């Protein structure tokens, strides 16, 4: 069994621990009403988009998400949240060091790291750190922590994830060569992350969109052989339009984090069918550290 398969399977247990932290350490997270920017790179950027939408949607206050390299840190943010599994990503370290006047909060997998040292408040999810280059459980544990902090009951989600890990996948990934993931609201970030997992692990042709954007051009390339995968509730007419192209439409009935687990598993299955090592994706490393 690959490292990533073990890490995918460990997610329900990690989510329980993260949800507990969300209740215990909620005071370390952004202050209600504060104007907040959430930063990350790669997978952590996609999680930043989900976190920002969750907080603002729950009435926590104006919350923006940025790739750390593009963050407008000159704006008058009250607090900045940095997400980094390794805690070493250069763009995140730079953004924190250049921020002025904002309280800095770090969500990291490695507590003794440059990102953590650049923040006033640090929440360590070291139990969710990973050996595989491709991120799975750290990212979803960040979401579990934030959802619990916002008052959501994660136990039904954890139970559903345990079932999804053991259940057959809804598609045979190797029979498809094009994957499109769709989300709405906070799950747009998860759709982006789903596409990234298939791209990283299996070198697949993947795309991701806010669901209503599918009709605005991307639907033109759907055909038999395409998979359209919904993360969470997605407009039914959009999915019906996708079906009419001959694409296979799946997802939408499970919690979005559980659906992401199924896509992680599909990415590993596709990688293995293509003779690839999902723990060691081409041209990638665990962390991007620039000179």
Textual characterization of the structure:
- The protein has helices spanning 3-9, 11-24, 43-57, 90-98, 114-117, 137-149, 155-166, 187-202, 236-244, 256-273; strands spanning 36-40, 63-67, 79-84, 103-108, 121-124, 178-183, 206-210, 226-230, 248-251.
- By secondary structure, the chain is of the alpha/beta class.
- The protein has two domains: 3-149, Rossmann fold, CATH 3.40.50.10490; 168-273, Rossmann fold (3-Layer(aba) Sandwich), CATH 3.40.50.
- The strands form two sheets. A five-stranded parallel β-sheet has the order 2-1-3-4-5, with helices on both faces. A four-stranded parallel β-sheet has the order 7-6-8-9, sandwiched between helices.
- Strand 8, helix 9 and strand 9 form a beta-alpha-beta unit.
- The protein is globular and about 55 Å long.
- The model has no long low-confidence stretch (mean pLDDT 95).
The profile of the biggest β sheet is:
5 strands, parallel
| Topology order in helix (H) and strand (E) letters | HHEHEEHEHEHHEHEEHEH
Helix share, percent: 40-55%
Euclidean distance between termini CA atoms: 35 Å
Oligomer: single chain
The parts where pLDDT drops under 50 for at least 5 residues are: none
Number of DSSP strand runs: 9
Shape: globular
Number of helices: 10
Predict the CATH topology of the largest domain.
Rossmann fold
CATH superfamily (homologous) name of the largest domain? Glucose-6-phosphate isomerase like protein, domain 1
Radius of gyration: 18 Å
Count the domains: 2
Q: In percent terms, what proportion of residues is strand?
A: 15-25%
